[in-house]
Design a protein that fits this description.
Chain A: It comes from Shinella kummerowiae. The complex is a heterodimer of chains A (about 280) and B (about 250). Chain A is α/β, with parallel strands linked by helices and about 280 residues long. Chain A contains ten helices and eleven strands. Chain B is α/β, with parallel strands linked by helices and about 250 residues long. Helices cover about 40% and strands about 25% of the residues of chain B. In chain B, a hairpin with a 2-residue loop joins strand 5 and strand 6. The chains are: A alpha/beta (about 280), B alpha/beta (about 250).
Amino acid sequence: MSALLDVKNLRVSFPTPRGPVEVVRGVSFTLGRERLGIVGESGSGKSMTGRSILKLVRAPGKVTADRLSFDGIELTAQSERQMRAIRGARISMVMQDPKFSLNPVMTIGEQIAEALLTHQTLPRSEIRARVFAMLESVRINDPERVAKLYPHEVSGGMGQRVMIAMMLIPEPDLLIADEPTSALDVSVQAQVLDIINEQIVGKGMGLILISHDLNLVASYCDRILVMYRGEVVEACKASELGQTKHPYTRGLLAAMPRIDENRDELPVLDRSAWATA
Amino acid sequence: MTAISLKNLDISYGHTQITHGVTLDIAAGASFALVGESGSGKSTVLKAIAGLAPQWKGDIAVNGKPRSHGIDRGFSKMCQMVFQDPYGSLHPRKTIDTTLSEPLDIHGIGNQGKRVEETMAAVGLDRRFRFRFPHQLSGGQRQRVAIARALMLEPRILLLDEPTSALDVSVQAEILNLLKRLRREQGLTYLMVTHNLPVVSFLCDRLAVMRGGRIVEVADVAQLKAGTLVDPYSRELLAANKGHALESA
């Protein structure tokens, strides 16, 4: 299986008055048509890694990489115009909060149709049919009614399902989901992740799931990268998360309270132990 | 003795009634959790107790004294609230020192410098942060400031509205440990709102499950740990929380 995405020595830096700060420091990984999870705390560079794949890091941020190739296309060499043909159609991204990522003045149906029409021309009846079919596949039972609603008229969970529908309707090869459920209730989270999972497996796509929740990533991904201060400190199979060696990963796992919690105090990370300058 | 007693509490925002007949007794020194999904009215109950949702019917009594609908200084000394988002709940243009002395000013309490330093030490904040602004602190440090502010008047009861849900797991662990230690040292009563059941099982001894503005079940945390909640909705909530933990185990 040839790699869908091949990243080598990815670096992202931002200039500050005291010189550039590197937020991603030499991340390398390859991804086939599989589910990869990236975990880390705030500021670990996990979101920046996701964004730089789509070249969505804005100036003055600087992205460099020895290799950043997607399905044989070298992304670093693409112009902004060429990137627009890739974004959405080949690689798409689900953002964290549906409240801020959907257009408040367009109906849901129009927004989903727009995602499709940006990349191809289709007769109106077919667009309608595809939008409804897509809404149905993200388990929205009455697509005709929902397509006419505006984003403020739907709940957070439904908004996120609309986002997923919008991202998947152009049938991309790779989906990047950046904290897709952290703005949602626990009871809705599982449902949204199941939908993403079902679509990914059904269509044979690649998935990068970015999250701070180790358990969540472990249950929905095949492989996991753990990031700390811009570097990948550990890469493992999701099923082997329990046997990880790195003190940071172990610390994160131990710091999480469990439902059958009997510890008197939760262990806290001692950051000095593995600080990398 | 009961620290907080609610009887047939109906809270409304305008014409919309949010809770329906909430009745609850919380013993002094207990740590009680209100759980449920968004929109179930759990935060609204806290707001009504704190006086931020004045449109209610029924009875609220704190330490045996009924609460009025207005601002009540005696009440503020007994009961304080910590909010969810440490990025939004601190005044961005006031130093930590100003934020912490404000409650003392309002209540005309002297010896402010010493009290501020003592409380900062109690929540594990270094003295050098005293004259900094909120944007110079991390999320965990800000939540410590918010907890310190709630403790300035030496209340007996803390109302905690999702105190750790905006924080990273590693920072969440620090704040949870802090809350547990403070309760042990100062004999506080906690009423905490959360949707994170593992947090409940770490910090609390009893919980109430809310749905659609009603309490559907009151249980011991032992029942939560053993998975023997009775109400079908509580079980559903438990299953959703356990969902990914189980699959990965």
